[in-house]
Amino acid sequence: MNKNTVLGVAAGVGLGLGLAMYLPAIKRKVQELLESPRGVPGKRVVMVTGGTGLVGKGIETVVKDDPEATDNEEWVFLSSQHGNLVDREETEAIFRRFRPTHVIHLAARVGGLFANQKYKVEFYRENVIMNDNVMECCRKFKVQKLVSCLSTCIFPDQTTYPIDETMVHNGPPHTSNEGYAYAKRMIDVLNRCYSEEYGCKMTSIIPTNIYGPHDNFSIDGGHVIPGLIHKAWKAKQTGENLTIWGSGKPLRQFIYSEDLAALTVWVMRSYDEPEPIILSVGEEDEVAIKDVALMVAEASGLDVDSRVNYDLSKSDGQYKKTACNDKLKKLRPDFKFTPMREGIQKSVDWFHANYATARKGH
């Protein structure tokens, strides 16, 4: 080996040792870049999980013509095709791909009363794992704000009414949906924990019963209004009666999906407390399931006097869970909700126009 070769090898070894010293720092810097929010400085990148569902589609409609969204935000609406949020590696890959500055977490395993009763374990496990993945990735990828979606079913079964944001953990939820309810309650707990330990800005919304275009109109596994809309459509086609499961006596508050969407965008931009906020119509707008069914029948063109009956073999579930929206009214006294008859007519018209492609499965 000649002198030049020896010097070349020595230089190579020296260079290798020098690089080796800096390699951990280089790796850390690359990882930081991969996990940092992207986009134009000052411009939000808002990622919506469950972006093709009922509320996600509502948000897409609301921000389409919103000047703030056009000028200062980039919106990403995730579907199941982007990856499985129950899988940690796939969730991290989603965050690495889009690098959001803000996240609205709507994705969940959801269903109506009878699905919740039948699959309590699945509703608990899938939602807990999914929520944990999303929340931890928000911390890891330095997301500036996370807004998660809860449900009024998280509130105690035995309680006083109206329920408000301070009462979430005052007792066990109704047994009919305890798997789903406890999974959702943990989001509220972790919002505070992440805030206290890591300084993360995380909060949650608690909507009452949601309905509108792009819902899941499954008769067996869906929620009450979309299920009734689908059953009314079938009754219209076959000449059969519209059958309501249960007595129709339970009381509920309903919020039109695009109203909820507008309020959710407002929460993302302007509401910074870790404590949840109820997004709902007022107590005075609570309505019996029977009256909802009659509105659906009327909007569908059925004779409400002769074409509606009740299957009393089916459970009514929780009789009422009246929610107080005083906190919302104080912060947004100007907000106007869509009247229920109008919202139901819009939902029925959308389902009829999109019957072939509307979701009607479990």
Total E-strand runs: 12
Helix content: 40-55%
Q: Looking at this structure, what is the CATH superfamily?
A: NAD(P)-binding Rossmann-like Domain
Q: For the record, give the distance between the C-alpha atoms at the N and C termini, rounded to a whole number.
A: 74 Å
- Sheet having the most strands: 6 strands, parallel
Q: Numbering strands along the chain, what is their spatial order in the largest sheet?
A: 2-1-3-4-5-10
Poorly predicted residue ranges? none
The CATH topology assignment is Rossmann fold
Shape: globular
> What is the H-and-E element order?
HEHHEHEHHEHEEHEEEHEEHEHH
Question: If classified by CATH, what would the architecture be?
Answer: 3-Layer(aba) Sandwich
How would you describe what is shown here?
The structure is a single chain. The chain has a single domain (44-353), classed as Rossmann fold (3-Layer(aba) Sandwich), CATH 3.40.50.720. The chain is α/β, with parallel strands linked by helices. Helix 2 (54-64) packs across helix 9 and helix 6 runs parallel beside helix 7. It contains twelve helices and twelve strands. Strand 4 (145-149), helix 7 (178-198) and strand 5 form a beta-alpha-beta unit.
